[in-house]
Input
Amino acid sequence: ILNVEQSPQSLHVQEGDSTNFTCSFPSSNFYALHWYRWETAKSPEALFVMTLNGDEKKKGRISATLNTKEGYSYLYIKGSQPEDSATYLCAFQRYQKVTFGIGTKLQVIP
Amino acid sequence: DGGITQSPKYLFRKEGQNVTLSCEQNLNHDAMYWYRQDPGQGLRLIYYSQIVNDFQKGDIAEGYSVSREKKESFPLTVTSAQKNPTAFYLCASSIGGSLEGANVLTFGAGSRLTVL
Output
């Protein structure tokens, strides 16, 4: 079983704060690293899929970086808003197998 | 609209019964996946399929079976051999292949199975 670890498991931040989460994964046989946002009562939605070492992706206030050599990725949220409250999942892909971490549950307090 | 349809949304089963969860996609995706979520745990991979008539075991395949006879369909059977079947089940699909963006997963709405 591939070990995909996310930290922290939960996080409370004040509205307007910036925050970041970590995903660590095996550095061998890397294919892609995924980030998803999962809101309550909805299906997970893709944020980013990154494939190249050093990749940086951005969508609005959310960005992600990737280090495949050391096996970690960071997800950053700038100026958190209550609507950012969700569980953020990362997933490691090796060939066509996609393995998820446990997620980071973010609560943004107004 | 293109998407993934899972049915039923809620299912109750007696111990010892097999049950099949449906997953249908009209996205023309090659790869399909089944995940299970339990409280306090992440998504755990049960089975995945890269192409019609081919599938591979994930990390927790024991007590489950799948088929992939058509590109758009990937049903999951929870057998009586699965010791703790009560869970939330998510189906997902992706285009598949090596192009960037081809591996983004699209998820269904999920099926919640409760064993009585």
User: Anything to note?
Assistant: DSSP finds no helices and eleven strands in chain B. The CA atoms of residues 90 and 110 of chain B lie 5 Å apart.
